[in-house]
């Protein structure tokens, strides 16, 4: 009897909390998943002077994307498929942001088949499977782009890659937020008027895109953020400033939130 009555009290408390916060079960049980695209053992593209690399940048700032999403009332999980960081500043940032460390890094050409759709193989698959396990609302793979190892003064057009069937609207929403708040805007990032566009990746067209394809099969919108070039001086100068980096991360979060609000 005691147990029953305690259960009833707990349910009532939960209902009251939901009513109070306005957070629905659907919003909290299907999180947005953010993936730190690279790993401690393979840090992705870096600036020619070594000042920035993809893995460390997003380990430091993925928490800011998450904060923008959570503050709008949606749940969010950050995942990294690589090994846990040992560098103190990175480890502290990841701990503060609640990064889920899967400790299954891609090593060189080693790529995993999806546990859900084994016909799809690709780097990033461990994170894609994790998102499918959680029935994620969507997945954002956080990367920085590069076109070579030497400095350039004019960046190419920014890209948001998306999975073909489900990712387009999400990608467009993040593009829109970037145009409004970051690219060639006052206080934003100089972008030589190059703009930003969506690039869908088709199933079967690129073996390395198997992770995006698996998410498409599961009906989960997925995008890859590739709109900042670490070999471009203007871009690197912008993102090395902490305030700017947070603004960039928040803008990605806003793009995701705007898309979520159109789904509800
Ligand atoms: Zn990358």
Helix coverage percent: 40-55%
Rg to the nearest angstrom? 19 Å
Can you tell me the overall shape? Answer: globular
**SSE order, one letter for each helix or strand:** HHEHEHEEEHEEHEHEHH
What does this structure look like?
There is one protein chain. This protein has helices at residues 2-21, 25-29, 54-71, 88-97, 125-133, 168-181, 210-217, 233-239, 242-263, and strands spanning 32-36, 76-80, 100-101, 112-113, 121-122, 138-142, 158-163, 196-201, 222-226. The protein is α/β, with parallel strands linked by helices and 264 residues long. The protein has one domain: Aminopeptidase (3-Layer(aba) Sandwich), CATH 3.40.630. Helix 6 links the parallel strand 7 and strand 8 (196-201). Helix 3 packs across helix 9 and helix 6 packs across helix 9 (242-263). Mean pLDDT is 89; it is low at 1-27.
Layout of secondary structure:
Layout (H helix, E strand, L loop, with lengths): L1 H20 L3 H5 L2 E5 L17 H18 L4 E5 L7 H10 L2 E2 L10 E2 L7 E2 L2 H9 L4 E5 L15 E6 L4 H14 L14 E6 L8 H8 L4 E5 L6 H7 L2 H22 L1
Helix pairs in contact: 3-4, 3-9, 5-7, 6-9
The structure holds zinc ion.
């Amino acid at each position: 009897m005691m147990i029953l009555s305690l259960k009833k009290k707990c349910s009532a408390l939960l209902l009251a909390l939901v009513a109070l916060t306005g957070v629905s079960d659907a919003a909290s049980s299907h999180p947005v998943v953010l993936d730190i695209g690279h790993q401690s053992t393979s840090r992705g593209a870096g600036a020619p002077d070594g000042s920035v690399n993809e893995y460390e940048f997003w380990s430091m700032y993925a928490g800011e994307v998450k904060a923008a999403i959570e503050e709008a009332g949606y749940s969010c999980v950050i995942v990294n498929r690589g090994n846990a960081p040992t560098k103190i500043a990175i480890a502290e940032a990841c701990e503060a942001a609640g990064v889920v460390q899967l400790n299954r890094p891609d090593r060189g050409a080693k790529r995993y088949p999806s546990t859900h759709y084994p016909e799809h193989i690709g780097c990033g698959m461990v994170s894609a499977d994790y998102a499918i396990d959680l029935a994620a609302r969507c997945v954002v793979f956080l990367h920085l782009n590069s076109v070579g190892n030497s400095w350039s003064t004019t960046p190419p057009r920014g890209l948001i890659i998306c999975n073909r069937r489900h990712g387009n609207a999400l990608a467009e929403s993040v593009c829109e937020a970037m145009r409004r708040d970051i690219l060639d805007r006052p206080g934003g990032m100089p972008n030589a008027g190059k703009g930003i566009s969506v690039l869908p990746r088709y199933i079967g067209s690129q073996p390395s895109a198997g992770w995006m394809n698996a998410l498409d099969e599961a009906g989960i919108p997925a995008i890859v953020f590739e709109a900042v070039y670490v070999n471009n001086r203007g871009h690197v100068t912008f993102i090395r400033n902490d305030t700017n980096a947070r603004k960039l991360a928040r803008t990605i979060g806003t793009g995701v939130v705007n898309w979520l609000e159109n789904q509800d």
